[in-house]
Design a protein that fits this description.
single chain, 315 residues, alpha+beta, 4-stranded antiparallel sheet, 11 strands, elongated, disordered N terminus
Length: 315
């Protein structure tokens, strides 16, 4: 009888100890989970020195990023670093090669998304415009009357242009390091049948002043497409100056000069302040060059602890 009682007590004691251990383990697990949840933003922030690597200070995406930092309560903890597209990409490539964390301002179409495995962070408040802007062809309001042949070529080019064309052009310039003017000429030579369609009616039209200007912002897409448009216009006798400028001067020059057009307007969100200021002085062609051009904070896929801008918020 004594042996039976002792055995029973031992079994009860063992069960009690097991229960305590299980509860303790659950408590530790919950604490670890809470700690991880609270520290995710801290870990990500520390890993990138609480810095978002941006581009030119006048770029629309920089303004949108500042708005996002305010909307998501990041402005007290995070710093938006002004840079340039080329410097941002150099930093991204260096970190990516070492599989180190980095957060940059990204947009599509852009060759980096084909060259590297990247993801845009979810933006539930749609500060960056949801699915993205259109990229549009814009003329001075008097351009068509002053240059009917150039207007005809540019609009036919816009009707025929596609994101696939940009995907073909960008790697040659930004990965292989070829000159954009030479890449544009190669495109013209390889697509002469398309170019002939763009220019066939213009050959019988009035050229107007033969000196034209195409300003552009040094983003990958516009750097690729703007020289192609210039080369197409030169096919019928125009002399075209293709000049890299900041977004503000680009819009100002189109608004002020009847000899100017551009293929770098991100509307309605990214360049909203410029179209609001200059809408009476410019014409936005109604067929976009790119239907949807999303923007947002971008990270390498290997940063699997961050998927949304909300993940950057401190608890």
């Amino acid at each position: 009888m004594l042996k039976k009682i002792t055995s029973t007590k031992f079994m009860l004691l063992a069960l009690a100890v097991s229960a305590i251990l299980v509860l303790a383990a659950c408590g530790d697990s919950n604490n670890d989970s809470n700690a991880d949840g609270n520290n995710d933003a801290e870990e990500v922030g520390d890993s990138v020195d609480w810095t978002i690597t941006g581009i030119d200070p006048g770029a629309g995406i920089m303004g949108s990023t500042e708005d996002a930092m305010e909307e998501y309560d990041l402005e007290d903890d995070w710093d938006l670093q002004e840079s340039s597209e080329s410097a941002m990409i150099a930093d991204l490539e260096e970190k990516y090669d070492k599989e180190e964390p980095i957060i940059v301002t990204g947009w599509k179409p852009h060759w980096i998304f084909a060259d590297m495995d990247l993801k845009m962070l979810d933006d539930p408040e749609e500060v960056f415009g949801g699915d993205g802007d259109e990229i549009d062809l814009v003329f001075n309001k008097d351009f068509e009357e002053a240059h009917p042949a150039a207007y005809d070529i540019a609009t036919k080019w816009a009707e025929d242009w596609s994101e696939d064309d940009e995907d073909d052009l960008m790697p040659a310039i930004f990965v292989d390091g070829e000159d954009e003017e030479e890449v544009a000429q190669d495109f013209i030579d390889d697509n002469q049948d398309r170019v002939d369609e763009w220019t066939k009616d213009a050959e019988d039209m009035d050229l107007g002043d033969e000196n034209l200007s195409i300003p552009y912002v040094a983003w990958a897409g516009s750097t690729s497409r703007s020289p192609v448009l210039a080369k197409a216009l030169e096919e019928v006798g125009y002399e075209v100056s293709v000049d890299q400028v900041e977004a503000g001067p680009m819009w100002t020059s189109v608004a002020d000069d009847e000899d100017t057009l551009m293929a770098t307007a991100w509307l309605p969100a990214t360049h909203d302040e410029y179209i609001e200021e200059y809408e009476d002085d410019v014409e936005v062609y109604d067929t976009p060059l790119v239907d949807k051009a999303p923007l947002g904070l971008t990270v390498p896929e290997y940063m699997d602890d961050v998927d949304s801008i909300e993940d950057l918020q401190k608890e």
